[in-house]
């Protein structure tokens, strides 16, 4: 796999399995994420497993949009990942959370790979209001990881 287009890492003072439980639950992830605001399971799924799909609700200021995500990795305490698509199944991005034990806690690495075809960037940027998606996602990742750390460490 190529290098991510945006990534961040943070050390969190709880076990990787605890943090995994937060990011692999789309409802809990929405509580700490920067643009992602909520979800509903689709296709008969009701929990995080490889192949499960959820419709994500996203927001940035007054702008709102939805996406469809398919979970590709669900390895508790090690990796959680999903592919995001838009209208007619057009690829948008891949998001991945990797967990490494560190002392009495773990290091969490959040990464994003841009998947939009070049011609699709203008329409999606118009909807989201973000013209430099990689820079925006780097900022979003930093904010999300900081909130994730607070939420995980408060829960212990």
TrEMBL record:
SUPFAM superfamilies recorded: Bet v1-like (SSF55961)
InterPro entries in the cross-refs: Polyketide_cyclase/dehydratase, START-like_dom_sf
Transmembrane segments: none
CDD domains: SRPBCC
Protein name according to UniProt: SRPBCC family protein
Any single Pfam family the record assigns to this protein: Polyketide_cyc2
Gene3D superfamilies xrefs: 3.30.530.20
């Amino acid at each position: 796999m190529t290098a991510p287009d945006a990534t961040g890492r943070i050390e969190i003072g709880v076990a990787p399995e605890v943090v995994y439980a937060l990011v692999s639950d789309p409802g809990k992830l929405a509580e700490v994420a920067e643009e992602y605001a909520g979800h509903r399971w689709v296709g008969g799924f009701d929990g995080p497993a490889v192949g499960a799909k959820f419709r994500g609700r996203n927001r940035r200021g007054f702008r709102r949009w939805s996406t469809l995500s398919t979970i590709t990795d669900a390895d508790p305490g090690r990796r959680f990942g999903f592919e995001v698509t838009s209208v007619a199944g057009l690829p948008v991005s891949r998001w991945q959370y990797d967990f490494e034990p560190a002392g009495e806690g773990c290091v969490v690495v959040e990464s994003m790979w841009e998947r939009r075809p070049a011609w699709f960037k203008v329409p999606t940027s118009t909807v989201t209001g973000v013209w430099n998606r990689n820079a925006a996602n780097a900022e979003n990742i930093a904010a999300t990881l900081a909130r994730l750390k607070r939420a995980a460490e408060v829960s212990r």
